[in-house]
Amino acid sequence: MSDRATPAAPARTAAVIPAAGRGIRLGPGAPKALRALSGTPMLVHAVRAMAASRAVSLVVVVAPPEGAAEVRSLLDEFPLGERTEVLVVPGGATRQESVRLGLAALPDDVTAVLVHDAARPLVPVDTVDAVAAAVRDGAPAVVPALPLADTVKQVEPREDGPEPVVATPDRALLRAVQTPQGFDRATLQEAHDKTVFDGEGATDDAGMVERLGVEVVVVPGHEEAFKVTRPLDLVLAEAVLARRRANDGF
Ligand SMILES: Nc1ccn([C@@H]2O[C@H](COP(=O)(O)OP(=O)(O)OP(=O)(O)O)[C@@H](O)[C@H]2O)c(=O)n1
Ligand SMILES: C[C@](O)(CO)[C@H](O)COP(=O)(O)O
């Protein structure tokens, strides 16, 4: 028997895109990820944004539970080129569950994972690359984030009148967190295996990793990585796309 070690399989980075939400805050219509921005579904913008990074060779799209076949044929209409493989799996009732289902579809050779909201279709490739590079350089969990413009108050929530303010956190210590959030695969899998939330689930993946006691680090986010959540965000997204078209014929 040879005493030469088997060469390690090359590390592979995959993106998981949770896209199974309804988009209630956006108002009535198709599931949010399937709504059009400049004539192209938001999900297609998000998939292209991940595939634009040379670090990413596989994209797993987590589709609305009843809509995986529709999403598969939609993505087939917008081919990405041979460098990027795209899988589609059905999602779950919460974002957390959808990400977990996306992780379950990853092949064994994937060692790093970027989790990216379909609802952040315009994230620039430099942001994706910065997150992927920080994971490749050894950080187990990386989030892109921006400082806040508003002052933030902690309140005692009330449905029936003015809400008492409990505290004003020091704004200089706060960051608004975006996606893609990047992880060493084993760390993210452990977080999903061990962290159980009731109801709506965890609002981001890095928070679940924090609960393991693993350090999460922040790299600079980007204004164009904003989350399309409410109707006014659609206006902003169309304006960003119009500016890109004017600037570089995008
Ligand atoms: N069961 C769910 C819920 C959310 N998401 C995804 O998680 C991302 C962030 O969620 P959010 O912006 O809250 O989307 P929605 O849940 O669709 O929005 P809303 O809360 O307004 O219904 C989105 O890409 C969304 O498709 C998902 O994959 N599965
Ligand atoms: C993951 C996230 O985009 C980070 O800001 C955010 O927490 C998602 O929240 P949502 O309520 O599911 O949109």
UniProtKB/TrEMBL annotation:
Q: Answer whether the UniProt record assigns the keyword ATP-binding to this protein.
A: no
* Annotated organism of origin: Streptomyces morookaense
Return the PANTHER family for the record: 2-C-METHYL-D-ERYTHRITOL 4-PHOSPHATE CYTIDYLYLTRANSFERASE, CHLOROPLASTIC (PTHR32125)
Query: Sorted alphabetically, which Gene3D superfamilies does this protein's record hold?
Result: Spore Coat Polysaccharide Biosynthesis Protein SpsA, Chain A (3.90.550.10)
Q: What's the protein called, per UniProt?
A: 2-C-methyl-D-erythritol 4-phosphate cytidylyltransferase
- Report whether Nucleotidyltransferase shows up as a keyword of the record: yes
Single GO BP term = isopentenyl diphosphate biosynthetic process, methylerythritol 4-phosphate pathway
The reaction(s) annotated as catalysed by this protein in its Swiss-Prot or TrEMBL entry are: 2-C-methyl-D-erythritol 4-phosphate + CTP + H(+) = 4-CDP-2-C-methyl-D-erythritol + diphosphate
**Keywords in alphabetical order:** Isoprene biosynthesis, Nucleotidyltransferase, Transferase
Q: Where is this site: Transition state stabilizer?
A: R25, K32
HAMAP family this protein is in? IspD
